[in-house]
Amino acid sequence: MKTLSDQAVGTAHGKIILIGEHAVVYNEPAIAMPFLATPVEVIIEKIDGDSVISSSYYQGFFKNVPSSLKNIYTLTETICADLNQSADGMSISISSLIPPERGMGSSAAVATALVRALFSYFKKSLDQTSLLNYVDISEKIAHGNPSGLDARVTSSESPVYFKKNSRFTSIPLHVSGYLIAADTGMKGQTKKAVEDVAQQMKQSYKQTRQLITKIGLLTEEAKTAIEENHTVHLGELMTLSHDCLKQLNVSNEALDHLVDTALKQKALGAKLTGGGRGGCMIALAKTAKQAKRIAHKLMENGAVETWIHALGEDFND
Ligand code: PMV
Q: Where exactly are the transmembrane stretches of this chain (predicted)?
């Protein structure tokens, strides 16, 4: 976060669920990763008169924002009131590389960057607890009942291990290699997929519960792999978890095709990420060169966009 005179910048980034999605609904653990390849930047500059905002959704007077930006509006008003500052006289410009509605934490990341920019603009210090509380105000408007995960991961540089109704734990990232994310171009259908898994849990309890338990075990193993730099094993665990998610019927043809494409290109592992039935998939590669080749093949095979996030150095056997 840097401040020039009368100008301030706040940043954040996207998130991906590395492993554990869907099982986390049934009290198994999950791991989410900050995805630095999709940054968000909010710049605030001093202007005369009414505040204006510029984003990919809307450009114009802040007081006239459409309902899709209501969260941003309320958040700004709240912070200005708390800090005893006027909400007029600002030009707020939001630029984000996170695709919206793909489970990559777009709304939380924009809110995080905005809170940081506003505090910097008003030259006030901001602690992590206040940041998360402010982002929660915005996320409640955008999503109703947020778990807090997106706020936590889009503002952090470490992977986060979490279970429903318990504390988030940062895990030290010691893995080398490269994470590739690819967008199917379809909105994810988290709500429907979660409902369908619940239905399966009623109809075929034993089989569904076994899959959920297995994803939980894979996630625990993935935590150790991340802590101990077992990149190859982490890849295997990702692919195994995709197989479970497929059996839970939360994948779709486009996701499966991209996963197969990445594995054919010798990715260490690949899986859907987030709610499924659209949205994004991820793959793990050893080297930057391999990651670029995989990303290229994913584009040739239906992805509309890809991103590469370097976890550490190139991985050598
Ligand atoms: O699509 P996302 O990133 O919001 O993730 C959904 C994760 C699920 O486990 C499928 C649902 C949930 O609420 O945890």
A: none
